[in-house]
Amino acid sequence: MPNILDAINRHILRVLQRDGRISNVELAKEVGLSPSPCLRRVRLLEEAGVIDRYVAVLDPAKVGAGLTVFARVWFKTQDAEVTLRFAEAVRRFPEVMECYLTTGECDAVLRIVTADLHSYWRFQADHLTRIPSVLSVKTDVPMETLKRSYELPLR
């Protein structure tokens, strides 16, 4: 198999990140291929797992999810079982958009989306702080979004 991330495939990926609904004919034209080889390359990228899935990006405010917060979480202990149970719990909450285990001051950082501040407060009180491994939660509320991107930098 040739290098799966050659220059043409990276170009395909950049275009698909901008517009996942682009037709194969338009994609092929933009990357300088005919449609059949372009489609073969896209299928190869899908089969290799480079393209994980296709999604629609929604406007949070227009679907009642206008508040984004970042919650820093500290665990009671830092053993593997605690981490596993925490991960299982947060995966069940649709409000948790992203969750990262971290080094440094806290043990995890979560990006949480809710309708408003009161909804977040209810989520924190009813769900997040009730996870048995959670010692404490500190929440940061961004004042303004300056950049939001879903495109990975491909050089």
From TrEMBL:
List the Gene3D superfamilies: 3.30.70.920, Winged helix-like DNA-binding domain superfamily/Winged helix DNA-binding domain (1.10.10.10)
The HTH asnC-type domain is annotated at 5-68
* UniProt xrefs under InterPro entries: ArsR-like_HTH, AsnC-type_HTH_dom, Dimeric_a/b-barrel, Tscrpt_reg_AsnC-like, Tscrpt_reg_AsnC/Lrp_C, Tscrpt_reg_HTH_AsnC-type_CS, WH-like_DNA-bd_sf, WH_DNA-bd_sf
User: What is a biological process (GO) this protein takes part in?
Assistant: regulation of DNA-templated transcription
Q: Which CDD domains match?
A: HTH_ARSR
| PROSITE patterns named among the record's database cross-references | HTH_ASNC_1, HTH_ASNC_2
Q: What domain of life does the UniProt record list for this protein's source?
A: Bacteria
Sorted alphabetically, which keywords does the UniProt record give? DNA-binding, Transcription, Transcription regulation
The Swiss-Prot or TrEMBL record annotates one GO molecular function as:
sequence-specific DNA binding
Q: Name one GO cellular component term.
A: cytosol
What is the name of this protein? Answer: Lrp/AsnC family transcriptional regulator
Gene source species: Rhizobium redzepovicii
Taxonomic lineage: Bacteria, Pseudomonadati, Pseudomonadota, Alphaproteobacteria, Hyphomicrobiales
